[in-house]
Write a structure and sequence with these properties.
Helix content of chain B: 55-70%
Number of helices of chain B: 4
Radius of gyration of chain B: 22 Å
Oligomer: heterodimer
Number of strands of chain A: 0
Order of helices and strands of chain B: HHHEEEH
Shape of chain B: elongated
Number of strands of chain B: 3
Radius of gyration of chain A: 22 Å
Strand content of chain B: 5-15%
Largest sheet of chain A: none
Largest interface: A-B, 57 and 46 residues
Largest sheet of chain B: 3 strands, antiparallel
Distance between the termini of chain B: 73 Å
Strand content of chain A: under 5%
Chain lengths: 213, 98
């Protein structure tokens, strides 16, 4: 058991990081289907950031994102036989990640107040690219994050895949098994929500009316 | 600014807002948890054999569980419509293996 553990850790450490060819990935999945744990380590190193970040953006909870990452790769190992080696693995991972994140969000919808989420986002490294960023910019970013946080989880997933993961609309539709029109309408809905929020912010304060009698 | 340009501007705001999440990295402990989970799966090979037997998207009996689920292509799960029959069959086969 100890030797196996050492082997597993080395398998992860030596995992080839970076984008591999599709044939190389298919070979890795085939090895995984034979129970090769080194292949799992290589795939984990390659895709852990993608899964973690997607889960983090949808759930907005670091612990939940860690759990989703763990469960996603345990499922990859357990159900490797059902993975089609002739298709890229990325859409499978995105889909399982979004499904797991959605399950978590629906089970614990009110576990995290919105203010806590926004405070957590502001504390992440890179939250404010420029240290001397203006107060108005900070307020703007806060407002955009508020709009994202208020979206339903599956709408948020589309926004995350499109704007953060840079997937095309048809790729998102294929990954989430949604019609292209639905993906487009969710993107449109999110933009409308943001536009409305911007307009609310810029609405002038009505001037005080004085009555001279 | 036309409608498309305005949409691009809104999209850029979404990108900037998601930037901190896009830079986040998972802690190393997750891999250890995965290996721990994987090591505690004594019947995983048997489960994979069952899945091959049933074909792509077929019913699958999870290891050490009395519940069956259907594993569909690309990661969807749903309760198996043949739960009762498969459960009995799976238990009989497992007992035979022991």
């Amino acid at each position: 058991m100890w030797l196996r553990s050492v082997f597993l850790n080395r398998a992860c450490d030596k995992g080839h990081v970076g984008a591999g060819s599709e044939s190389e990935e298919a070979h890795l999945v085939e090895r995984l289907q034979q129970g090769d744990l080194k292949a799992l380590g290589t795939l984990f190193e390659r895709y852990k950031d993608l899964v973690y970040r997607t889960a983090l953006a949808v759930t907005r909870d670091e612990r939940a994102a860690e759990d989703v990452l763990q469960e996603c790769f345990v499922r990859l190992y357990t159900y490797a036989a059902s993975v089609d080696t002739e298709r890229p693995l990325k859409p499978w991972l995105y889909r399982v990640t979004v499904n797991l994140s959605y399950d978590w969000s629906t089970e614990k919808p009110a576990s995290q107040p919105l203010d806590d989420v926004l405070e957590w986002l502001s504390g992440l490294p890179g939250a404010w690219p420029s240290p001397d960023r203006k107060v108005e910019d900070r307020e703007l970013m806060r407002m955009v994050r508020e709009v994202i946080a208020e979206l339903p989880p599956l709408h948020r997933a589309v926004i995350v895949l499109y704007y953060m993961e840079n997937l095309a609309v048809d790729e998102i539709a294929g990954t989430l098994q949604l019609p292209v029109g639905t993906v487009k309408s969710r993107l449109h809905y999110a933009r409308v929500r943001l536009r409305e929020a911007l307009m609310r912010k810029q609405r002038p304060v009505p001037e005080m009316m004085y009555e001279f009698t | 600014m036309n409608s498309r340009e305005f949409d691009d501007t809104l999209g850029e705001l979404f990108r900037q807002a998601l930037q901190p999440v896009a830079q986040a990295q998972p802690p190393a402990v997750v891999w250890r948890c995965i290996t721990s989970d994987v090591q505690s799966m004594p019947l995983s090979r048997w489960a994979r054999f069952m899945m091959r037997l049933r074909g792509f998207g077929g019913p699958y009996l999870p290891s050490l569980s009395l519940l069956t689920v259907c594993v569909e292509p690309y990661g969807h799960y749903r309760p198996s419509p043949f739960s009762g029959a498969l459960m009995r069959q799976g238990l009989e086969l497992r007992l035979a293996c022991y």
